[in-house]
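User: Need the bound-state model for 2-phosphoglycolic acid:
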Amino acid sequence: MLIAGNWKMNGDPRDLSEFTRMVARAPEVRSAVALVVCPPAVMLQKSVERATVSPLTVGAQDCHFAASGAHTGDLSAEMIASCGAEYVIVGHSERRTDHGETDEIVSRKALAAQRAGLTAIVCIGETEAQRDAGEADQVVTSQLNGSIADAVDPGRLVIAYEPVWAIGTGRTPSTADVAAIHGSIRRWLDDRFGTVAGVPVLYGGSVKPGNAHELLAVENVDGALVGGASLKADDFIAIALAATAVLEARA
Ligand code: PGA
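Assistant: Bound-state model below.
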């Protein structure tokens, strides 16, 4: 299982107290549950330093697909890797919406992440209108087709299924709906990379300590991408402990 926290544009680089508390509590979580925290880029370096010799690793929230060049305000995957980060989220719905990122751009970013030695967490998910129209499955499949290039290394790939309407809203799909979409994502991955590839598929969207166990226990859910609840160490660790409990129940 993988529990990843996406801090979005939250946090203060002068105050690493919550992050430090996460690092301190990380050993409580079973080692089969990997922990990744993705703070804003200005906190990457310090966070990596704070997490040395910790099981918790650090990721970024976006990268450019070029290694360097005239791209004002952007960061390359190489720069992120040189901070000591190991993951980068690409194609989050907020980037797709706020910055007009297409599947094609996301696909190039995922390749760039891997070129730099990072693991790419590629986000996909339908809007509410698409779900209401019965198109969720089609949308997710088309995002996978467009965002995951043939050259992608499945060993450095994570998929995060995040229904847009569940992000930051307190609403979540039913466990049956999560099972259905994760099942089709798994089949897509098996077709592309073979059944042994083991690409983790995370669920994201309003994951909280109170619903984490239920969501993580769904078949083909290999972890969570957590926004709001990843800002507080106690909530983030509670979600990771729910993952531990699910693994223990499966064993
Ligand atoms: P949320 O965000 O947990 O606050 O809903 C999830 C995400 O956007 O990754």
